[in-house]
Amino acid sequence: MIKGELAQSDIGRMSEDFLIRDQKAKETSNQIKEYYEQKYLKPLWREYAEVVAIALVSAILLRVFVVSAYRVSSSSMEDSLIEGDYIFVNKLAFKYREPKSGDIVVFEYPLNRERHYIKRVAALPGQTVEIIDKVLYVDGLVADIPPHSKNIDGNVLSADLSNRDNFGPVQIPLGHIFALGDNRDDSRDSRFWGLVPMDHLKGRAIFVYWSWEPDVNEMEWAFPYIHVAALRLGNAIIGFPTRTRWERLALTL
After folding, report:
1. Dihedral (CA of 19, 24, 30, 36) sign
2. Catalytic residue positions?
3. From CA 209, how far away is CA 249, in angstroms rounded?
């Protein structure tokens, strides 16, 4: 009887122990669940702040390592690019391949590396380039004409007067390219200031992300600057629908 009573007592204590353990396990599970719910329950402002922070960091990394944004400020590349076009340039384009004829490239101006120019690659290292009466020849053959390039002056200048319409022949040395503007009669390029070293290349233009028609009557910056800034901003807002060149947005190059 004593052994039986002890056995029943042990069984009762074991049942109580299981119940206590089960209760403690449930309490622990609930505490863990509440902890993670509190941990991942973020206020709305924090979620927006994190999204904005991630977007800014991503934009900065893209800007530093992958793409650059430029504004076209001259007519030398018309009608492929026109003044007021905003373009993205792939900075990695020539990390993995050499430039090709026809690429539109941004580069440091050989005579002043602080300035950036944009032109089209017309000839590559080892090729011989020559211009005869406005016609471009590469290795003795007529070069492909870019779809939107143009000549705006019907006059042909002799080589004695200018390199514009008659140039060369010149063989391009290693490590250089011959660059021309698409607006052939109104472009200062390799015909005038020489070849472009490849280590001056900043990247290849890939597409127009915005285009804004310049205002020829826009007020110049002068004191008081706040007044000028306010007027420019007001004019931009008012002229947004008409001055934006909608047909050029996302134009690939």
Report:
1. negative
2. 76, 119
3. 5
DSSP 199: G
Q: Please give the torsion angle defined by the CA atoms of residues 12, 14, 19 and 24, in that order, rounded to the nearest 10 degrees.
A: 140
* Residue range 138-147, pLDDT digits in tens: 999 999 999 9
Residue type, 75: S
Fill in the amino acid letter for 92. L
Which residues, 6 or more positions from 110, have their beta carbon under 8 angstroms from its beta carbon?
193, 194, 195, 196, 197, 200
pTM equals 0.73
Q: CA 171 → CA 59, 147, 248, distances in Å? A: 41, 25, 36
Q: Which two tokens stand for residue 184?
A: 């052939």
Residues of the chain with pLDDT below 50 are 1-3, 6
**Res 222: pLDDT:** 62
In angstroms, the Cα distances linking 92 to 88, 107, 196 are 12, 13, 18
pLDDT digits (tens, 9 = 90+) for 114-134: 999 999 999 999 999 999 999
- Assess contact for 205 and 104: CB atoms under 8 A: yes
Q: Where exactly are the structural domains of the chain?
A: 2-62, 67-212
Structurally, at CATH architecture level, domain 67-212 sits in Ribbon (2.10)
